[in-house]
UniProtKB/TrEMBL annotation:
<dbReference type="InterPro" id="IPR014910">
    <property type="entry name" value="YdhR"/>
</dbReference>
<protein>
    <submittedName>
        <fullName>Monooxygenase</fullName>
    </submittedName>
</protein>
<keyword id="KW-0560">Oxidoreductase</keyword>
<dbReference type="GO" id="GO:0004497">
    <property type="term" value="F:monooxygenase activity"/>
</dbReference>
<dbReference type="Pfam" id="PF08803">
    <property type="entry name" value="ydhR"/>
</dbReference>
<dbReference type="InterPro" id="IPR011008">
    <property type="entry name" value="Dimeric_a/b-barrel"/>
</dbReference>
<keyword id="KW-0503">Monooxygenase</keyword>
Amino acid sequence: MVKLLQVDFDFTGPFGEEMAEKLAGLAESINSEPGFIWKIWTESRKDQLAGGIYLFEDEESANAYFKMHSARLKEMGINEVRGQIFDVNIPLSTITKGPVD
């Protein structure tokens, strides 16, 4: 069963196009993570937050990615990484055009 991973953390930038330019390589590398399906990148310059919403094939893949990604962010100086794994209600998400099929 697919799992959704929600991640966020305090972040002072860069944001927008500058973030896209600086993190394009990281984005490409995420595509090869085991069990990875897709990611939506999130950011709030106003609230100084960044993160993402990920879809994984299973809970094991989501947990492994979160553990690895948290360690990577800590190496970048981000001390607190918040993450939550959710089940996805496929029938309702399909009705509301969620990219889950």
